[in-house]
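A note from the maintainers: we've had questions about how concatenated examples are separated. There is no special marker in the raw files; a new sequence line simply starts the next protein. For clarity in this README we add a label.
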Amino acid sequence: MAQMKLEEYRLRLVSPECNPSSEKVNAIFELNEDLSELLPYLNTSLKGFQYNHQAKILVLKRDGRVITIRPKEISITKLNDEREAKEVFESLKKEILKTERNKENIKPSYESRPIPSPGEILKLLPGKNCKECGKPTCKAFAWDIYRKLANIGDEKLELEKCKPLFSQEYKETLEELRKILGL
């Protein structure tokens, strides 16, 4: 099989369907090369958020963006302009090509990472209801994390807003929370 290059593509910028008045744009990169066989390896190396092997769709969440990789298409949300779209694509392209070069050392994953429930998240929060995170209760903060994980909210996931969680007392809890959140 010839080495992949991902040099030829067609770029389209589109308004977000869910918010056409948004100042952000989504980018769709139509590829000349097929990523189908590489998707399970990318799921492992890029720590996929959701993966459907039958449909051949890998979804990543990075820097508040949703990146969807299909066999011959990569879409990226929440971009300012074409320049930023190309920058994000070039960064992702490097990771894809690195995965292809090293795939014999990568165990392919055909599974999606499960999204923890708000209750599972709440169990790992300090439970102080201190409001330092900007939410009235730890339960509200847990729901906020869940919404962002499930891509219901627009904002980036920010665990650091929970100051007590980053104290020495909760070091192990923080590690466990990061693990279940895939961070």
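[label: protein 2]
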Amino acid sequence: MSTSSADYPHRITITICGDGGCGKSSITLRLVRSQWTHEYDPTIEDSYTLTRKVDGQTYHLSLTDTAGQEEYRGMWASSNLRSDAFLLVYDITNMNSLGVLQEFNDLIDIEAETRMDAWERDRYQSSSKKKKGAQDMGGGPVKPIKIVAGNKCDLQESRQVPAQVGLEWARKHGCGFMETSARNTVNIEETFALIIRRVVEARRLAQGGGLTVDVGPGPKREESLGSNAALGTRRAVTAPLSPLPGGPEKVMSLEGNEKSGTARWKAFWRKLACWKT
């Protein structure tokens, strides 16, 4: 997967992982087909391709919706770790589903170390051949991007995982954070726009010759937002630390057109519903 992404800079591979029943397939189907179903059908592995336009650039996304059941996780590790980005999904009505993300996160971090080791090895080999006319390697390894999504945020009355707990877990593990609702279409497009922007930024940093850094939300970002509204702060910390050219964060619409004023306000109030205390 990584080789293909390198050959096609506007292609991004994304693996969606998490415990069984947390809504991974619902998020995927909402993005790909604008559909939602309440029926739970355990997935082994499904793949989808689609395009999205972000900041004026069209990106080709390859999504892999993976199994959450423990018996399939060995297969997950062997086939999906080369992705550019990972969406780690938990269910806000199930505290255990957040803990399950630790196993997936550990596997992804091992993959990041493997990429670093491979890059160091290739750099050493390139340096040893320099006398034979080989050129120095440019750039550095691109670390996999990690975004945590607390799904089913429409089920506030059944919430077990406070938004702050999910955010703190994401920050501790170097991940971006969103709360989503596949049922009510809350933060679905925005989550994948965030993934795209962070992959693009990670590639840009790598091409610049420096190592990529974890671009999860951090204290400096929160401080820059001021101390006005707690809800606004929680929502805003999921923005990339250094916005890419093309202006501030924009919503990716399915049609590629900007929403009307009325629809935009409705979408805004739907998002606030996820942050009720």
